[in-house]
Design goal:
The structure holds two protein chains of two kinds. Chain A is of the alpha/beta class. Chain A contains 13 helices and 22 strands. The longest helix of chain A is centred in the last third of the chain and has 19 residues. The longest helix of chain B is centred in the N-terminal third of the chain and has 19 residues. The chains are: A alpha/beta, B mainly alpha. The structure holds flavin-adenine dinucleotide.
Chain lengths: ~600, ~260
Amino acid sequence: MATRLPSVDAVLVGFGWTGAIMGQQFCDAGLNVVALERGVWRDTPTEFAPTFAQDELRYMWRHHLFQNVADDTLTIRNNTDQQALPMRRLGSFLLGTGVGSGGAHWNGQIWRFLPSDLKAYSHNLERYGKAAVTANDMTVQDYPVSWEELEPHYDTFEKLCGTSGKAGNLNGKIQDGGNPFEGPRSAEYPNPPLAWPASPAMFAEAAKKLGYKPFPHPTGNVSKAYVNPLGMQLGECTYCGFCEKFGCGNYSKASPQTTILPYLMAKKNFTLRTECEVLKVETTSDGKHATGVTYVNSAGEEFFQPADMVILSAYILHNVRLMLLSNIGKPYDPKTGEGVVGKNYAYQTMGSVNVFYKDKIMNPFIGAGALASVIDEFNGDNFDHSGLGFIGGGYIASMTTGGRPIEMIYTPDGTPKWGMEWKKAAAQNYLRSSLISCHGSVMAHRGNYLDLDPTYRDSLGRPMLRMTFDFTDNERKMSAYMVDKAAEVGLAMDGASGIKKNYRKGSWNVVPYQTTHNTGGAITGDNPKTSVVNKYLQSWDVSNLFVMGAGAFPQNAGYNPTGTLAALAYMAADKIKSDYLKNPGPLVQA
Amino acid sequence: MSDNGINRRRLLVAGALTGAAGAAGAVTLHDGERGADPRTYSGTMPWRGGAADAPPIAEGGTGYTFFNALEQAFLEPALDRLIPPDPAGPSATQANVHIFIDRQLAGPYGRGDHYFLGGPWPKGVAEQGYQSRLSPAQVYRLTIPAIEGHVRGAYNGKLFKDLAVEDQDKVLKSLESGDAKLDSADGKMFFTMFLQNAMEGYFSDPIYGGNKDMGAWKMIGFPGAHYDYREWVGRHNERVPYPPVSIKGRPGWSET
Ligand SMILES: Cc1cc2nc3c(=O)[nH]c(=O)nc-3n(C[C@H](O)[C@H](O)[C@H](O)COP(=O)(O)OP(=O)(O)OC[C@H]3O[C@@H](n4cnc5c(N)ncnc54)[C@H](O)[C@@H]3O)c2cc1C
C-alpha cells in the first residue's frame, strides 16, 4: 500500500529544465511545491569539477550522467511491419536523468523558432498548396500560439540563461550581423556573442562571399560574467571543448544548476525528493481530475503524493509514457488516424559536411557547445520550396563543440576505419579539418508515433514506451538539398582542399548519435480531437494536468527545441498564475 | 597559463582524485542509476564539502586481470593491426590499449552495466542496433575462441598470432564485413565493439590504463584536459604549443 503524504499545491514530475522553471515560477507565486526526481542530486563542484569534467570516456562513452537503459529504456522500430526491439544501448539520443537532466549536459544552443514554423500547416498550405502539406502521409499542424504571444517568453528564457548572441531583427528593424530571418525581437541578447575560432570565422567569410548572411550562434555558453534576473552568477566561457554531453565545471553554461537551483532550493515552500520515480498520475473515477501521483523511491517504498496540480516535466518520452500508463487521453492509432496521445512523434534530420585543409591548423579542441557561425537561408520557409519536393529546412553551421578524439576525428572519403592508412589520415586531419552541420526539421507523418510496447517491460515491471519512427522522402530530400548547399560553402572556405558530404540517407538508425531532440506525442493544438494539450499545455481531458516539454511540438522545426519548450513553459506558468489559480478549470474552451 | 594557475589546478586535481578514496569516502556518489538513498531537500542548497565524483581510475599496473592466455594471444596482434606502430605515434599495444580493454572488461562496462540485456532476443534489423543478450565481457569471451577456430580451419591449424600480417588483416576485414562465419558467435558485432574499444583505449585519458604517456594525443595534436583556451580562440592557424595534459596532470606539471 502506498503511504499517503500531505497534499501540496503542485507536484512536479521530473526535475530537469522545465521542472526547474515551473518550480521557480510557482514558488515565487507562493505555491507549495514538491518536485519528484527519479535520479540523484547533482551540483557543479561535486559532479562537474573542472579537475575531472573533461573526460570523454566516462561521460560520453560510459554514459555517466545519462539515463541507464539497464533500468529503463524504450523499444524502437522504423515502421509497424517490424517488431519493436529494445534500445539496448544509448546511441541516437542521450536521455538525461538526475537533477538538471539534459539541461546539465546539453550544448546550450538557444534558438527561437521562426514565426512561420508555428504555422507550418497553414503557411505551407497557402504558399505551396494542399499536396505540399499532405504528401508522404504528412500530418502537419499549426501551433495554437502566435509569434507575438511567445516572444516575451523567449526573452525571459534568454535572459535567464545569459544568452550570448547578436539580434538580427530588433522590433522589426533588421540588424547587421544578426539573423535577418528571425522574428522581430523585443530586446537584444543579454550578452555579446562568443569569439570565433578559425573554422566559424572562415565559414562566415565564405558564406558572405556566396551572398549569405552569417551570424553567431545564440548560445547559453556565456561570453562574459553575468548575473541573471534571479541573481544567479555565470562565469565567462573558457572554450574548453567539453560542453555538449558534459557538465560545465566553470559555471559558464546555462543549466538548471547555474541559473535556477541555488535560488529555488533556498525557498521554504519548495521540496525536492530525489530517487523517486513516478509510476502513475492518479485520477478521480471519472478520469477528469488528477488527484496526485504515485511514486516509488529507491528503497522500494511507495507513496501517494496528493496535489491540486500535476505538472509532467519528465522529458517528452517519459511524459507521453506516463500519460499512456495513467490512461489519460485517447491513445493515437496510426491505422485510423484517430486518438492523440503519442501522435506526431518527430525528431531532427542531421546531415553534415567535413572540410579538410592541407596546411591550415583549425585547433578543433577550442570549442563550446554552441560555438558556431550560422546561416539561416535554408531554414523553415526562408527559401522558395517550389518544385523541391519537400517542406521544412534547417540551419547550416560551422559548429566547433570541441575536438574530443574518440568521437571527433574526421578523415576524407574512402579512408578505412583502422590500420596504417587510417592512422596516417587521423594524424594528418585531426587539426586540419572542420565540421559543417546541417540541422534540419522533421515533419509529422502518420506512421511516426509513440505507444506502449506489448512485450518489453522496465525494471519496475511497467510496459516500455514503443517508438515507431522513420525519415520519409520529405526529410531525405531536404537533407540532400541542405548538405549540397553546405558543401558549396565548405568548398569556398579559405584553404579547403577537400570535403566529405554526409547525407541523411536510409532509415532512422538508433546507433549513431544524432540529437536528443525528440518531439511530439503530447502535441498542442486548438482542438481536443487533434491535440493532447491546449496552448497553455493543459490537458484537454484532465484540466489540472499540464504537460511540459517538446512533446507539445506538432512537428519539429529546424532548430534545437529547448528555447521553444522553455518559452511555452513560461507562457503556461503566466497563465496559471494569472487565471487558473483564481479559477481552476479549462483555460481554453474546447 | 600562469604558474599560479598551474599550481591552483594541481591542488584541485590532487584534492579531487585523493578525495574519492580518502576523506570523502563516506559520501556515496551515484551515476544516475537507481539505488542511491532517497533524499528530501528543502529550504537549503544541498552541499557536501570536499565531496567529488572523481573518476574510477584503472588500477593494477600493466598485468592482465581479465584476459586469459588464448585471448591475450589474439588481442595483442589484432590490436596492432587496428593501430599499427609507425614513427608518428604508438601502436595500440605500445599505448597499452590491451590493458585498457582488460580493465574495462573486468569492471562495470564489461558486465554490461549500461546495457539493457533482458529478453526476448529476436534478431533485429541493423537500424535497431545492439540486440545481443551478451555483456561486452561475454562477447569477448565467446568470440575470440570462435575466431581462433575459424582461423585454424582456414589457415592450416594456425593461430591468429602466427599468420602473416596480410592474412591477419584479411581475417579482421572478414569480421568487419560479416563475411567470416563463426561458430556460435557474431564476428561483425564483435568487431564493431572491438574497434570502438580500441579507439577508446587509444584516445581516452591515461587514467583508464591506455593512451600511455598521452602518445595518441601527441600524435594528433590534442592538448587533452586543458580547461582554458581564451587566449587562443582568436589566434587562427597557429599551433597551440601546450603539451597534452591528463586529468592526473603530466610529468613536469607538478614540478614548478
Ligand atoms: C547531449 C545533449 C545536448 C543537447 N543540446 C541541446 C541544445 O544545445 N539546445 C537545445 O535546445 N536542446 C538541447 N538538448 C535537449 C535538452 O536537454 C532538452 O530539450 C531539455 O533538457 C528538455 O527539458 P525537459 O524538462 O523536458 O526534460 P529534462 O531536462 O530531460 O528533465 C526531465 C527530468 O525528469 C526526470 N524523470 C523522468 N521520468 C521520471 C519519472 N517517472 N519520475 C520522476 N522523474 C522522472 C528525469 O530523470 C529528468 O531529470 C540536448 C540534450 C542532450 C542530451
